[in-house]
Amino acid sequence: MSEFKPKDSISPACASPSSAGRTDGLLELFDMDEIMNCMHCGFCLPTCPTFVQTGLETYSPRGRIALMKGVATGQLAVDAEFEHHMNACLGCRACETACPAGVPYGGLLETAREVVQETKKAQEKPSAVRNLIFNRVFPYPQRVKRLGNVLWAAQALGLQSFADRTGLIRILPRELAEMQKAVGTVASPRERRTRLPRMQAEGETKFTVGLFTGCIMDVMFFETNQATARLLTKAGCDVVFVPQQGCCGAMHAHSGEMSGAKELAKRNIEAFERSGVDFVVNNAGGCGAALKEYGHWFKGDPDWEERARRFAARNRDANEMLAELPPLSFSKPLPAKVTYQDSCHLAHGQGVRNQPRELLRRIPGLELVEMRQPDSCCGSAGTYNLTQFDMSMQILDGKMEQVRETQARLIVTSNPGCLLQMKQGILRAGLAGQMEAVHIMDLLDRAL
After folding, report:
1. What pLDDT, in 10s, does the model give residues 384-426?
2. Strands annotated E in 324-435
3. Which end of the chain has fewer CB within 10 Å, C or N?
4. Which of 318, 313, 383 is nearest to 346 (CA)?
């Protein structure tokens, strides 16, 4: 494996603004009050995965905030160096948990990336790949489903395993070639097409909830969505699969495509308003953090801010929802040692930590063993394991050392990206057959 080599200094080109990094009309996007709230105390440093790996100030939250301040005040340019340091961040938000001043680093990072992308768009057209991802695929749920159909067909015809056996898989970029090994069996188009639009509660209906199915989640982890719905019905909820919902917008927001993120958010707000459900429930930590931040996204928008805040207030992670409902009766013992890997955006972004653990402890026979740093990032971070592969794998390998120490047979997590990353970690650590990574909703469903 090639080792990640950080850029350890700011180049002279970043010392002052230039025509190559103009920010006309963009600097007001920065919230200077929040930037100035950073006291540079250093509490964030030991919690930041990239700083721990490199030991460099520019790879720390306070270092990146200093760069943002330089750009916001016009002392630094929005150039390739600034872009590199913003993109080298995982966006895990562990620094927010550690920060005594409550600096909303995640929001500042999204703003910085938006400034980068808007500056680049003023200079050149987006790449074909970026245009395809953010403008041609993810805004359209049916197109995402068609891609899922293609993947299912490749698996059903044995093309994926054939490419692995023959070495043809090596024609893919290294990061994609490694990741595909962790991808599980995709649900067939027929399975997805025949899903009922509503599932009735068992016994008295306590709430009617809309399941946020996500985009990739409902293709690659369709059965996890179904398991979540079954758990909710057993806990007394009618579950509605709300039509016209789509991607949450998190990937757009994290990549500086804030205008696209807001358009996706508007679609979801309208869809769930029409549904009349009591709560919106999701089972993906990254999606959930975005859904709960819609009010922040539309801050100051007279037409959408209040609607977005009402929508955000109705959102619950599935762990939250199940923990608030009468306890489920788990009838099937699962005698296994389990360790729980916190999803960063669930733990740091939403503050949901105890509920998943409470649910796991209710399963008879299960032994929960905590790893040393369960809420440290696994290196997945959305598309980070594709765009920053070497750093991602270094972080993952360190995480797997912690997992190995627990001697657990199951690694449980609450986010699809983390789940794929932990599956990849098992393969890299040579633990295939000895250890399994599983979404918590699937494990709870097994215990029923």
Report:
1. 988 899 999 999 999 999 999 999 999 999 999 999 999 999 9
2. 337-340, 367-368, 410-413
3. N
4. 318
Contact predicate 308/339, CB 8 Å: no
pLDDT in tens, 310-335: 999 999 999 999 999 999 989 889 99
Give the burial class of 124: count Cβ atoms within 10 A of its Cβ; 0-12 exposed, 13-18 middle, 19 or more buried.
Answer: exposed
How are strands ordered across the β-sheet holding 410-413?
A: 367-368, 337-340, 410-413, 436-439
Integer Cα distance of 367 and 382 in angstroms:
30
For residues 216 and 138, is the Cβ–Cβ distance under 8 A? no
CB 56 within 8 A of CB 310: no
Please state, as a whole number, how many other Cβ atoms lie within 10 Å of the Cβ of residue 317. Answer: 27
Which residues are CB-contacts of 355 (< 8 A; sequence separation ≥ 6)?
Answer: 317, 319, 320, 322, 323
The 3-state DSSP composition of the chain as helix, strand, coil percent (nearest 5) reads 55, 10, 40
Measuring CA to CA, how many Å separate 12 from each of 18, 125, 427?
A: 12, 26, 42
Strand, helix or coil for residue 241: coil
Alpha-carbon distance 411 to 394, whole Å?
19
φ, ψ for residue 204 (rounded to 5)? -70, 135
Coil vs helix vs strand at 371: coil
Q: Provide the token pair at 288.
A: 């959930």
Helix (H) / strand (E) element for 238: namely: strand 237-240
